[in-house]
Each structure stands twice: as structure tokens, then as C-alpha cells.
Amino acid sequence: MSAVRDSVVERGAPDGSRMNADVRLSIEQVSYAYSPNPSQAPIFTLEATSFQVRAGEIVAILGPNASGKSTVLRLIAGALQPLSGRILLNGSETHSMEPRTRAQRIAMVQQESQLLFPARVWEFVLQGRHPHGKSLRFETENDVKIAKNALGQVGAHQLMDRWMDQISGGEKQRVILARALAQQPVLLLLDEPTLHLDIGAQVDFLHTLRKLTVANKYAVVIVTHELNLAGEYADQVVLMQKGKCLRVGTPASVYQRDLLEQVFQTQLTVEQRVNGRPRVNVLESSEETK
Amino acid sequence: MQPLTLGKVAVRCGILAVVLFVVVVIALKFGAVPVSLYGLAKDLLGVLIGRSSEISSEYGMIIREIRLPRIALGIFVGASLSVAGTSFQALLRNPLADPYVLGVSFGASVGSILALITEPHLSLRPEIAAVFTPLGGFLGATLTIAVVYLLGRYHGEVDSKTLLLSGVIAGSFLSAIIMLFMTMLPSSNTRGMAYWLMGDLGTPTLPLLNWILRTGFFAGFALIYLTASDLNLLIAGEKEAMHLGVDVKKVQLVVYLAASVLTGLAVSVSGSIGYVGLIVPHVMRMIFGTDYRMLLPASAFGGAIAVVIADTAARTVAAPSELPVGAITAIAGAPLFIYLLRRRLA
Across all residues in chain B, what is the average pLDDT? Predict the structure, then answer.
């Protein structure tokens, strides 16, 4: 375990020599506008945004509320069509893929799944095999093997026969991740996956994610509010504000005190730790941020 | 981890088919003329496996001409309503959705009545005239579910309670329209008020219409069944289903149209039999689980069984007079609806 941790820290350290080889996902000058009524001016616009994600790399999209983080994620997922620019996953545009093909390559982990009827953990994880099945999609031995393996990878094998509504928030988040792994994707998207978790479960979750990203060579994009967790676990961060992509780079290069203070409208300090990772401390909030 | 297999589905459907057969034999026995249960079962089996083509002559006419057609009608009406209910539940993400509760059956009734009124004036060819009433039922059902769905949407999300309320109001409005029609029009060509509001299997249907009902059922069921595994995911939400590879818009459209066909067909030949699409899927979920690949065929058999039993009760409890079959299903269904609603709110 400690060997894994060490190697993670090592490869996560700032490294200017990485080349463009191995690029899985490439977001090229993507813009988007949303208006509830086509005749009115858009109430939200995303300005040209570009960044790239390599295999085995975690990119975190950071920013305050309404900065466009989730919009970028939904654009990458192919759920929205860019107004201009392209989003290429291994050379194909994500928006124009067939839903089935897309789900074979892109898996999405959302905050919480609402279940209308109770389901067992194993049934839930098997759903991840849906895009790979034949027309009626009765699961094969192989699907079962993959689902079991996915549960094992997130360390939730023992939960297999439990009901989804009877496990803890942290356990549920692992099971949702296992379902995404069962899709055998090349790209993993996570929308605030640690939002409802306590700090221990957050670290556990991201540590597992880090390990799997390296081992399985996933390209990972994660949307989060957690500056310090992103600083610790992400290889690159994309800092956004009001639909604009302000900065892309390693956490150490993006986490500048002035910049973060301006974006998050709060006073803070940034310290560089010995492992090359930055740590943000929020100072006592000033009057106007209260 | 024991996933559902085609074999498991087949075995369970076989068991349900046997139960349906037994129910049919018992239902055939009940009626004004006494019939031996043993002889009946033997004769029916003989016919089914092709060994003989005749039912004993003493009661053969009554069985063949009166009881069997009515039971056969009950089987297809029950299966259609139940599968439609199961489908609407997935489509609307609401376990209380049912063609009757959502007012869709009344919409189909109004459509069928309008078709019955206009048909004599159009001098149609007989084949077209035969599909005219079910077509009216289908259009009525399609329009009603569309309106109820739009009324139940709020800020792009379907709210479960608003949806149910919209359905109840639409149903109340449409049943008032039915009463208006029934009061203003001569009853000879539009059947009766009890028929459209409560459902009745006593009106004989033309052979062509019977054929349409059966073909329509199998076609509608097949279309919905092909999406069964998509429906399992759609129940968890549209976004989630999309990310798991479901072509959400396409599946919704197919299931919406097919379920409306099933409702329209059933209502055009039997009126608004209520709560079948609510009770049966609920019981089947308790027995077989929530996987739509099992639930859909189980609901079809269960709906057939439930309506044949209810109709047998309707024919016999107040003999020699008859109750509308919908009265029996409502007596069983309304309390269950309340129970499910309370449990959901809790």
C-alpha cells in the first residue's frame, strides 16, 4: 500500500517534461451558451476553454458556484453540444457519438443516485455492463466477473449483497464508482463525488481513485469545491470563474494567493508543502464574504 | 450475485401460464349452466395440445360461444392494461402511475366514443371501420398522457404528486365529458355510461376487432419488452440512463406510444377498467423483483389472471344480475393505492 502511495506522490509532482503523447481527451476552444428562451440573451455563457487530459491523469475543475464547472463536465460527457470548438476523446467528438458507444468509453459518477425501487449493490454495479450488452442485455458470466472485479477494485466486495439504501454515504459513493469501472471506460467523469462525505471518506475515496487512475490508465476529470483535496490528488487543475477558464496547470502553479482570493472572494494563504503540493488555508472571513 | 437469465424468465412465465390456465378453467365453470370442472379441464387441454377439436357437446355451445370469448377478451384486456401500467411507471418514474389513475383510460374512452359517433357517418370500408374505435382510443390515450405529463412537469422536472393530481383532474374532467356524451346521445350506438366509466367485458366484440386487440397486444408488448433493460435504468433518472448508454428520447417515445396503444385497444373493447395497471405490477414486484425483463411478462400474465378472476366475480357475486368488472378491480385497487401513497409519503 505504501509503495503505491509513494509512487502516486512521485508522479503527481510537478513535471514540466510531459509531452503531448498519451493525450486522451482534448478540449479545444469550447464555448457554450445557455438561455431558457432562444429569443432572449443567454443567461450563462462559457467562453473558449481549452485543456487536455492524458491517460493516467486526474484533472480537477475548480471554481465557485455558477462558474461553469458542471457545464464543462456535461459538455465533455456529450450531454450538451458545444456552441463552437471541439471535444475529442481519442479523436472522436463526444457529442456526436451514439449513446451506447459513448457509454462504453465515458463513465459518469454523479453525486447521488435516486432509486425508485430498492436494488442490491451487485444489481446496481451490473448496470454498468448495460452499454456492452446485446439487445435484451441479460448479463453473462463475463459481466458478472467484471462487476465483481470492479467492486473489489474500490474495496467494496463485502457490500455485494447489501441493499443500496442500507449502506453509508461513503460506501455508496464507492459502489457508484464501481459501476463506472464496470463500464470499462477510457474516460471517467466525476461531479462533486465527495460532496456528502466526511473528511475520512473523502480522502479514502480520492486515494482509491488515484490508485485506479494510474493502474487502469483512465483519463479522469473531476469537478470539485475542495481546493485542498484537488491540490493533493490532481495532476492538473482548471480554474474557472463566471464561465471563463482562468488558468490551467499543476496545482502548485495555479494556486496563487492573489488569484484564489480574487476567484473565491475570501482571504486565504497558500503554502507549498515538501511533496510539491500546495495547501490552502482560509483565513477568518472578512465582513463582505459573510 | 445471481443475475437474471432468459431461462429463469421462461420458467417463471411457464408457472404463470399454468396458473392462468387453472384460473381460466375455474372461470369457465362458473355461470348459470353447471359444468364439470374435471371434464372441462380435460377437454380444454385436449384442444390446447391439438388432440381433439371438440368440447363435450352438452355444454360446448355455452363454453365456446359465451364464456370462452369473454374470458379471452379479459385475458388480453388485463394483460394490456397491466403492461401499460408497468410501462407508465418506468416512463414517469412513479410507482403509482396507472392508465386509470392518470386519467388515460378516460381519455381513451372519450376517443373511442367519438369514433363510435362519427363512424356511421363516414361510410368506411369494414376493415377500416373495425380499427376506427381502437384508433380513437389510442389517440385519446396518447393525448391525455401527453397533457397530464406536461401539467405534471414543473421547471423541467416531473413532480410525482403534481403528476398524480394532474391525472386525477384530467380523469374527472374526461369522465364529465363521457357523462355529457352519454346523456345527449342515444345509447344504442355508444354502449352505456357504466361501460365507459367502470369497464365491462360483457359486450361481444367482432372477430376482426378481437384480432386487432391480440395483434396489437403482442406488437406493443414486444416493442416495450425490447426496451426492458433500458427501462431498468430510466427508472433511476434520465441523466443517469443517458450516461449508461440509453438512447433516452427514443426509448421514451417507443414506450409512450406502445403503452398508449395498449391502453387505447383495451379501453375501446372493454371501457375503463381501473387499477389493474397498479395492483398487478405491484404484486409482481413483490414476487419477482423489480427487473423489467421479468416484470413485464409477469405483469402481462398477472393482468390476465387478475381480470379473469375479477370478471368471474363480477358475473357471479350478484347473480343473476352482473356488476361492471371495474367495480371489482376498484374495490381491490383503491385501498392499495392509498396504502402505497401513504407509504411513499412516510
Answer: 86
Pick among A130, A141, A162 to test the B interface (most B CBs inside 10 A): A130
> Is A287 domain-assigned?
no
Which among A238, A245, A268 is positioned nearest to A256, based on CA atoms? A268
> Which member of A106, A117, A127 has the closest CB to residue B233?
A127
Cβ pair B228:A136 closer than 8 A: yes
Residue A1's pLDDT is 39
What CATH number does the domain containing A184 carry?
3.40.50.300
* Residue from B216, B218, B219, B197 nearest B205 by CA: B216
Q: How many domains in chain A?
A: 1
β-strand pairing of A92-93 with A84-89: antiparallel
Q: What is the pTM of this model?
A: 0.86
Q: How far apart (Å, rounded) are the C-alpha atoms in residues B107 and B110? A: 5
Mean pLDDT of B228-240: 89
Boundaries of domain holding A241: 3-282
Q: What is the pLDDT of residue A12?
A: 39
Q: Which residues of A touch B285 (CB under 8 A)?
A: 117
Query: How close, in Å, is residue B40 to chain A by CA atoms?
Result: 39
Q: What CA–CA distance (Å, rounded) separates B222 from B9? A: 15
Report chain A residues touching chain B, CB-CB < 8 A. Answer: 77, 79, 98-100, 102-104, 106-108, 110, 113-119, 122-123, 126-128, 130-131, 133, 135-139, 143-144, 147-148, 160-161, 183
In this prediction, residue B154 carries a pLDDT of: 74
Residue B149, pLDDT > 90, answer: no
Alpha-carbon gap: B264 to the closest alpha carbon of chain A (Å): 26
Of B4, B235, B248, the CB nearest to A116: B235
- How far apart CA A79 and CA A97 sit, in angstroms, is 10
Q: Which residue of chain A is at minimal alpha-carbon distance from B5? A: A138
Task: Tell me, yes or no, whether A15 lies in a domain.
Answer: yes
Closest listed residue to residue A51, CA positions, set A277, A240, A290? A240
Q: Which residues, in sequence order, are CB contacts of B62 under 8 Å at separation 6+?
A: B31, B33, B35
- State the Cα–Cα distance between residues B324 and B315, nearest whole angstrom: 8
Q: Has residue A290 been placed in a domain?
A: no
Q: What pLDDT shows up at residue B338?
A: 86
pLDDT value at residue B187: 62
Q: Where does the pLDDT of residue A18 fall: very low under 50, low under 70, confident under 90, or very high at 90 and above?
A: very low
pLDDT of residue B334: 87
In a domain, A208, yes or no: yes
User: Cell numbers of A134, please?
Assistant: 446485446
CA distance B110 to B116: 10
Mutation for B interface: A96, A114, A136, most B CBs within 10 A: A136
Rounded to a whole number of angstroms, the distance from the CA of B292 to the nearest CA of chain A is: 10
